[in-house]
Amino acid sequence: MIRKILIANRGEIAVRIIRTCREMGIQTVAVYSTADKDALHAQLATEAVCIGSPRSADSYLNVNNIIQAAVNTGCDAIHPGFGFLSENGDFARKVQENGLIFVGPSPDLIDKMGNKAEARRLMKEAGVPIVPGSEGVVETVEDGLKKADEITYPLMIKAAGGGGGKGIRIVRSADEFPAAFMAARSEALANFGNGDVYMEKFIENPKHIEVQIIADCFGNVVHLYDRDCSFQRRNQKMIEEAPCFSLSEETRQTITADAVKACRYVGYNSVGTVEFLLDKNGQHYFMEMNTRIQVEHPITEMVCGIDIVKWQIRAANRQRLTITQQDIKPSGYAMECRINAENVKQGFVPSPGRIEFMHLPGGRGVRVDTAVYTGYEIPPFYDSMILKLITFAPSRLECIRKMRAALEELIIDGIETNIDFHYFVLHHKKFVDGSYDTSFAGTFIEELKQNEYVV
Q1: pLDDT tens, 272-311?
Q2: Helix then strand then coil, % of the chain, to nearest 5
Q3: Distance (Å) of CA 109 to CA 269, 389, 438
Q4: Is the pLDDT of residue 165 over 80?
Q5: Radius of gyration of the chain from Cα atoms?
Q6: pLDDT beyond 90 at 359
Q7: Which pLDDT tens digit goes with each residue over 120-144?
Q8: Which residue from 262, 163, 265 is spatially nearest to 211, judged by alpha carbons?
Q9: What is the pLDDT of residue 454?
Q10: Biggest alpha carbon distance in the chain?
Q11: Residue 60: which of 127, 93, 112, 13 has the closest Cα?
């Protein structure tokens, strides 16, 4: 049994994992960089260990220091959270080699599904629809140009070994291809240590739909229905909702069934998310699988009444899944706004600094996941997301109205944030009626510019 977990992460996800561990009676060890010595996760954990200097490479990506901290403090397991080392198969392998449990899928599954080209191949074998594209990695510009003629433009060049919007280029003609290919490879190498890229047809203005999965080591798989993650700026999600308001029941059943089929085919054994693109004709295509907890998992928890992290830990503990698909009965709507420390009027540039005062909203159906507090100094070294504001209500419109009220009540002084930006979005007709797609955020930002709200 897992009795003590080291959380190899920081910020709100580390705090969120600590809270579930407390409920389960599991002790926790937080790791922190010198820049995070006053961080909330380091204060809430049972123990805290400094693992390096502010640079991620010296701390939150320092595999040896993290594993040493786990061994020295007598941990049974390591939870990677999201980002950092969460989808690094080599890290998971080293965790296991040192006699520790990795709270996530097996290292081989991380490698298979983390390599986007390999994942496409597996999904094709499983009978899950994939976007037309290259069969595997594209090695050279010349090879890519030949394949591009088969796929037809517009197309996307994408990093094979990562996600999060990094290492992606949209190409609309052969003239653009060479420069885009080299740029995508360089960005992929810089962000993931792997410069491999693959190609697929660019689906114009799709919906981005994902399905939350829970699986165990005994072949049991259930889905927790769908989320709409279509409000994105430069491939980075900003607002998510569950369920997708515009999805027909027939399409929902097909997409969730394909997500379960995908997990069963590869023998998945943890919490994960299968992501799809939905085109204008209602056809869905497999995009990728995230073999970790997602930033937006709280909205699924709200509508399904299930603690996803708890089941993730149980799966790592080789406990059998005791809920069936029939047990999962979602109700209502949930929405999440990612509140970032950034200056929207200056192009969304990060805005680190000291929080002079903070007031958080509350009330029925309002949840706040954060690791910041009044007096906290936000360091400039990490992701700018500082808070996730989540609302839940019986209907989507009520959920939007509750989110507006929560944003009105949320006060963060001393730094710039995107609170006002979210508030404006939630009053736009296209967002309110749920008809938006992945192109909407860009269009909305242009509208703000024309109204002299400079971004």
Answers
A1: 999 999 999 999 999 999 999 999 999 999 999 999 999 9
A2: 35, 25, 35
A3: 9, 32, 29
A4: no
A5: 21
A6: yes
A7: 999 999 999 999 899 889 999 999 9
A8: 262
A9: 54
A10: 59
A11: 13
pLDDT at 353: 97
Band the pLDDT of 451: cuts 50, 70, 90.
Answer: confident
Whether omega before 178 lies within 30 degrees of 0, making that bond cis, reads no
Taking the CA atoms of residue 343, residue 344, residue 348 and residue 351 in that order, the dihedral angle to the nearest 10 degrees is 10
> What does the pLDDT look like over 197-233, one tens digit per residue?
999 999 999 999 999 999 999 999 999 999 999 999 9
- CATH for 4-103? 3.40.50.20
pLDDT reading at 163 higher than 80: no
Residue 199 vs residues 101, 130, 156, 177: alpha-carbon distances, Å: 35, 12, 6, 11
How is the chain split into domains, by residue range?
4-103, 132-201, 207-450
What letter represents residue 340's amino acid? N
Q: What percent of the chain has pLDDT over 70?
A: 99
Whether domain 207-450 has CATH 3.30.470.20: the reply is yes
d(C-alpha 323, C-alpha 122), whole Å:
27
Burial 216-231 (b: 16+ CB within 10 A, else e): bbeebbbbbbbbbbbb
For tokens 């903070």, the residue is 358
Q: Tally the residues of the chain.
A: 455
Q: Tokens 């992945």 map to which residue?
A: 438
Chain-centroid distance of CA 343 in Å reads 22
The pLDDT of residue 455 is 52
Kind of pairing between the strands at 77-79 and 101-102 = parallel
SS (H, E, C) 133-194: ECCCCECCHHHHHHHHHHHCCCEEEEECCCCCCCCEEEECCHHHHHHHHHHHHHHHHHHHCC
Question: Which amino acid would we find at residue 208?
Answer: H
Looking at domain 132-201, what is its CATH homologous superfamily?
ATP-grasp fold, A domain (3.30.1490.20)
Catalytic residue set: 292
- The token pair that represents 129 in the structure block: 């629809």
